[in-house]
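Page 47, continued from p. 46.
Same chain as before, 92 aa.
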Amino acid sequence: MKTSFAVLLLAAPAALSLAACSEETEQNAATTAERAAADAEENAEVIGNELREGAIVAADELSEGAEELSNDLAESDAADNDPGDGELDGTD
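Result:
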């Protein structure tokens, strides 16, 4: 019985030490997860901003292309000596 008690007395601090280590490990894991979540949020914001900027540039270029096409069509219509009757019935 004395041997069991002695083993228990020696094992108790080791068990407490392992519990403390486990608690510290758990806290470190939680901190790491929080930091990873914050990084992911910041990265998502940067990506969102880049996508928005790209969409603005694309829309501007599309508008410029549409304006050029409109101008080309207007010039072509102005230069057409036989514009027809404007009907799409094959009589032009």
